[in-house]
Amino acid sequence: MDPINNGEEETSKKEISRCSIDVHKVAPPPQRSSFEKLKSRLKETFFPDDPLRQFKGQPSKRKWILAAQYAFPILQWGPNYSLSHFKSDVVSGLTIASLAIPQGISYAKLANLPPIVGLYSSFVPPLVYAVLGSSRDVAVGPVSIASLILGSMLSQQVSPAKDPLLFLQLGFSSTFFAGLTQASLGFLRLGFIIDYLSEATLVGFMAGAAIIVSLQQLKSLLGITHFTKQMGILPVLSSVFHRTTEVYLLSLFIFGPSFLLLFPVPHDCSMKRPKLFWVSAGMPLASVILSTIIVFALKAQNHGIDVVRILYMHLSSLVSLSVSFIYLYMQEGIAVGRTFAALKSYRVDGNKEMMAIGIMNIIGSSTSCYVTTGSFSRSAVNHNAGAKTAVSNVVMSVTVMVTLLLLMPLFRFTPNVVLGAIIVTAVLGLIDLPAARRIWRIDKFDFLVMLASFFGVIFVSVQLGLAIAVGMSIFRMLLQMTRPTTMVLGNIPGTNLYTNLHHYKDAVSVPGFLILSIQAPINFANANYLKERIMRWMADYEADHITHHHQLQGIKQHSTTSLHYVILDMSCVSALDTTGVTLFKDLKKALECKGVELVLVNPIGEVIEKLERAESEAAGSIILRADLVYLTTAEAVAQLSSAINLKMMM
Amino acid sequence: MDPINNGEEETSKKEISRCSIDVHKVAPPPQRSSFEKLKSRLKETFFPDDPLRQFKGQPSKRKWILAAQYAFPILQWGPNYSLSHFKSDVVSGLTIASLAIPQGISYAKLANLPPIVGLYSSFVPPLVYAVLGSSRDVAVGPVSIASLILGSMLSQQVSPAKDPLLFLQLGFSSTFFAGLTQASLGFLRLGFIIDYLSEATLVGFMAGAAIIVSLQQLKSLLGITHFTKQMGILPVLSSVFHRTTEVYLLSLFIFGPSFLLLFPVPHDCSMKRPKLFWVSAGMPLASVILSTIIVFALKAQNHGIDVVRILYMHLSSLVSLSVSFIYLYMQEGIAVGRTFAALKSYRVDGNKEMMAIGIMNIIGSSTSCYVTTGSFSRSAVNHNAGAKTAVSNVVMSVTVMVTLLLLMPLFRFTPNVVLGAIIVTAVLGLIDLPAARRIWRIDKFDFLVMLASFFGVIFVSVQLGLAIAVGMSIFRMLLQMTRPTTMVLGNIPGTNLYTNLHHYKDAVSVPGFLILSIQAPINFANANYLKERIMRWMADYEADHITHHHQLQGIKQHSTTSLHYVILDMSCVSALDTTGVTLFKDLKKALECKGVELVLVNPIGEVIEKLERAESEAAGSIILRADLVYLTTAEAVAQLSSAINLKMMM
């Protein structure tokens, strides 16, 4: 007996002695019919947040009230709405209104829609949301990304310059169908599909979109009259360099100050320094008014700065929307709601919220509004301005309406260049470099995904950029399934603990045992891999022990160190399909050839069930032999190593 | 203090007293550079079976020999090939030849190719495989499924009746590109894609295909002259009922006996009753010879049974092959290899095997052979006939060649009706009802997948049927990721064991603790769900304890039973992405609001690393606080419950 072995021997001995372990049987899973299982699985899939919890055990009358409140959250906070609430709601409402007006105009421009549509969109939807929405901080209205994508997607079909009317109609019908899709997804509790936009994808996408948008603004900033409507950096740049000679001093003269005015106020500053919310709130409006006055004074519109033109509306015609668009604009809305709900720690039912926003857009589309959702920047301002309830949205909408009635004529003089500046500052805030750095440090693959969506958006197209990024993320998930982790466990001497042998230096392998932990559900995608991998672990084991004997006494000596049992820790195998069951049969056969026994530790209910059923089918090799299934690795080792010692004596 | 609580109290007390647990620190993971990680991950993905293991630590000369042997397995068994080997190889070779000839002709017919192509295909490829193949039992040649799909796919483009020559060329080029694809997939170590054909999918598909094929054979069985070449049950049936008047007595008179001769020999009988291998081997040939003689005697070909017509070959032109085809025919080849390797317990490198079969087809296509692979039925016979090495393939190929030279003229008289009977009996063996029943009993969803591919193949098309089935399987995997299992753990009184509270009846929840085990990698797809689910578990906990207090003493009493710690058992969280990291930050924040601490148990190396990095980024909430990370749940509970008791005293 060589020292090292003795060491190991002792380990296992000590264990056996130390814990005169009373072995615990692996209980058979509680009986449940396939129907019950199906029911619970469906519940987990579609109602993970259990929205009906509050209804449980309530009198039917109360149930009706609760249902009404669930449908119309206004009934929850409405009754006990106080004056103090109202005060702070008015303040915040006016604040976001001062943001909503210039942004509304700008974003409409971004979508190649007449600016007044932007204002309408900050008027009707907020009212609807105030009734249906369950978030207290979200400020709804047009948002940059959605406007951008809508514009670029529609421009591919119709030229907003040539056929503005059809373009407008397309815009409204897109809004309608986006709303319809969203509402139905919410109703069908399929909201979770938006989770497939990973953080990395969004960061990359936003940055890419921001750059494209800013470049497109060069049009108004440089006063270029003929400009490409395409997304994609190449067409944009080309038409910039093609026309830079046209730069008008006047444009710069106006752009300079307004940009300087706006730039120190990135979109999320108001999140970081709440007290300063009025800055980000006031500035855009200020610059609009300022510049309007200047232009009015200079009558600059005669000197060639093209000014806002107003169009009138019509009813909508049918058009299908690309998934990526719906995806993104849903995503923003819900994300905003979740974020602020988390801040004030109240719950927002994602699917309910989707329905609210969806209905909001359906109604909006018929009142000449284009796509709206919860705006991140304005919601932040709203939150910091101390909004208490959705009433702040109402106040905003009223303010906007007043503006529409009284001040609209004045906006004729607002130069595009200022709107351009507003857009640029708004979207530049979407470039989140710290997040990019964090992603790089935390997860290299996510960083790749981020780059993919970034360059995809910049060089190819919004849709493709997203598709690639989402595809990569899903592919990685599949790969994790196809190549699950298998860890070799070792014992920490003098304890019942078994930990990853390659992570914990003080863990030692127990002679005669190969202890593996399988870290994923076993199914058709990984059954073959697992078999090969386990075989390889066994080969490694043999190799180690033989070579190490050679070194020690030059001869093969196979008594205690040779492999007797392969223990599979099944704690993490959360599911098993038919191919997975077959794996165990094959494995068992393969091990028997080598005179090694297969031991299972702590299999979950489902796994036990399926293996049992499989056995009742195929008479022959039994996988769940009572003496080869244990609740813990420690117990298995304790029991079986004594068995080994017996064998050795004979 | 109410009794129940006392009970629980004692539990946790006992625990603390019993195990004066020496707390083990969670070790930081061993330092590895991103490059090292990438390297090991790539290895796991592409070389899970570690084919280069044998090369390790060998002298360079030896390495060359090994490399040569790896490339050409013949060099392994060639040198020590004995006479006794040869004897048994000859026997088995002749046996499978007697199968290969009739099946070759029949399957070629199945692919709408001239029968001699079938014979060629049992002549050249076996020779190639004998040199390159690593399996000792596989008998290569045309197989029913591949022939069927090839035929149906090509018929959609060219009519074999109208333009037989072009059809032939398409056949060869398809073979060439199938071979090329397979060889390159093998070379790129991407063989694992065939694992995505789950057992359920295959069972369903095979059955569907078998039915279609058998129906198509009604043509020759009923002597129908004009027959649809389409797959799909409806066109087939229609043309059957349309022509049944044409049934010739003579056809039945021949079909009857030959079918009876063949039927008692289903394709896998030779697997079940090895001794009878000669039956399944001899019968087809027997019936061919018999019927040929009969027809020759009766000169029946004048009486209207259309007999085999022979065509001549040309070089191939380019065509692209549908994935499903490559998929299936690869799958069969590799599956066969693996099965028999398992039986004789020698290893077959799937990717290497793919390359072998791929090259075999590339060469084959240029020598007027169509797609070949390892045939399950013939390999079974080969195995039971006692084949020792690939020499049996050589023997077969020689026998086939001799047949080609001498007996081919005779085959002119072989009536299609017999070939039809051969095909039908061959494919009917593919309908595996026991498997279907097993799948139903083990996994209902898999059964759905099976039905999907079955009906997809029968009513729609081979490609679509497969696509649907594979899609369903993958969708389920994604769903498992999106809705991972979370188990509530409870303590088994008097032990350190923590098991699923809803599975083990004797487990009790520890007051003040909510112990959850998360059973999947945490990523963008499930981060949101997990947060909501954990919140819901907490709500459940609160609900339970409050109500149960109400019942007991009517008042809320929140000392020890109220929730203090949420313990997440991270043992099974095998990966974490950036969104996952964010989850922990949010969760921590959300819990702090409720005055609950978040405790992590046994996180794996990767998780620790990523959380640490995230913290070094975001100053603020620390997730990995030393006193809130433990190696085992028992230790965590022991430590923290004393902390709770302290709090209570104050």
For the report, how would you describe the main beta sheet of chain A? 6 strands, mixed
Number of strands of chain A: 8
Tell me what portion of residues of chain A adopts beta-strand conformation. 5-15%
Number of helices of chain A: 27
Helicity level of chain A: 55-70%
Terminal-residue CA separation of chain A: 18 Å
Q: Mind sketching the topology for me?
A:
2 copies of one chain form a homodimer.
Chain A: H1 3-18, H2 34-46, H3 60-71, H4 74-77, H5 83-110, H6 115-121, H7 124-132, E1 139-141, H8 144-155, H9 164-187, H10 199-221, H11 233-243, H12 249-262, H13 269-272, H14 277-298, H15 323-343, H16 350-366, E2 373-375, H17 376-384, H18 391-406, H19 408-411, H20 416-428, H21 433-442, H22 444-460, H23 462-482, E3 486-491, E4 498-500, E5 513-518, H24 527-553, E6 565-569, H25 578-593, E7 597-601, H26 605-617, E8 629-630, H27 633-649
Parallel strand pairs in A: 5-6, 6-7, 7-8
Antiparallel strand pairs in A: 1-2, 3-4, 3-5
Helix pairs in contact in A: 1-27, 5-6, 5-8, 5-14, 5-17, 5-18, 5-20, 7-16, 7-18, 8-9, 9-16, 10-11, 10-20, 10-22, 12-14, 12-20, 14-17, 15-16, 15-17, 21-22, 22-23, 24-25
GO molecular function (chains A, B): secondary active sulfate transmembrane transporter activity
InterPro entries (chains A, B): S04_transporter_CS, SLC26A/SulP_dom, SLC26A/SulP_fam, STAS_dom, STAS_dom_sf
Subcellular location (chains A, B): Membrane
